[in-house]
From TrEMBL:
Organism: Cyprinus carpio carpio
SUPFAM superfamilies named among the record's database cross-references: Immunoglobulin
GO cellular component: plasma membrane
Similarity annotation: Belongs to the myelin P0 protein family.
Pfam families for this protein: V-set (PF07686)
Protein name: Myelin protein zero-like 2b
Length: 218
């Protein structure tokens, strides 16, 4: 039905351009102009996101998504949807919806992980992923609608989850750094002590020479 209606509008548009337009179709010219002018007046929502983001495994990360609309913002009209495409795959799945309220994900991968952290009245459609896992690697798309202002392009964020540094690795690093600092301090102390003893020895030699020269004079 939709394709047939589209064909009909295209036919009417072409017909309206003909000079030999019948009276019946000529009456449709104002109607066609009304619909086409309405379509051209609709503008797209501008969505802004970070292109790439990195998070440590087991931490929380905020997927920031802001938007600007030519229409007034309202909780009644603004709707937000987030989709996820796993790394190396082409199939997307919906993970979060917001319209008047947040609808937590039912997907097992993001259940109890994806939470709403935005404010549509301030042009913020962000969500937060808690306790990120390696399965969260992929591309996240933020889509915003505020009729009659519809979004032209979705904002995309490529998330990369990296290995969490273990306590043993931190301990080894701390020991290595502490050992280096300790060695430097030990060398510095030895150097200072040697300098003090040398200076003290030089003073003693000078004093002895002074006494010997004094005894010879007497």
């Amino acid at each position: 039905v939709e394709s047939g209606f589209t064909w009909f509008l295209r036919y009417v548009r072409l017909s309206c351009q003909e000079d030999s337009l019948p009276a019946t179709f000529g009456n449709l010219r104002p109607l066609w102009s009304h619909y086409t002018s309405g379509v051209h007046q609709v503008e797209g929502i501008e969505v802004l996101t970070s292109s790439e983001l990195e998070a440590v495994n087991g931490t929380d990360v905020r997927l920031k998504c802001t938007f600007k609309s030519t229409q007034p913002l309202s909780e009644e009209t603004v709707s937000v949807s987030w989709t996820f495409r796993p790394l190396g795959k082409s199939l997307e799945k919906s993970i979060f919806l917001y319209h008047k309220q947040a609808y937590p994900p039912k997907d097992e991968t993001f259940k109890d992980h994806a939470v709403w952290s935005g404010n549509v009245m301030n042009g913020d459609a962000s969500i937060t992923l808690r306790n990120v896992q390696f399965s969260f690697n992929g591309t996240y798309s933020c889509q915003v609608r505020n009729p009659p202002d519809f979004q032209g392009f979705a904002g995309e964020i490529s998330l990369r989850v990296v290995q969490k540094v273990s306590f043993s690795e931190i301990g080894i690093l701390a020991i290595a750094v502490g050992g280096c600092i300790g060695i430097v301090l030990l060398i510095l102390v030895i150097y200072i002590v040697v300098r003090i003893f040398r200076r003290h020895g030089d003073d003693m030699d000078t004093e002895m020479e002074h006494r010997e020269s004094k005894d010879q004079v007497l």
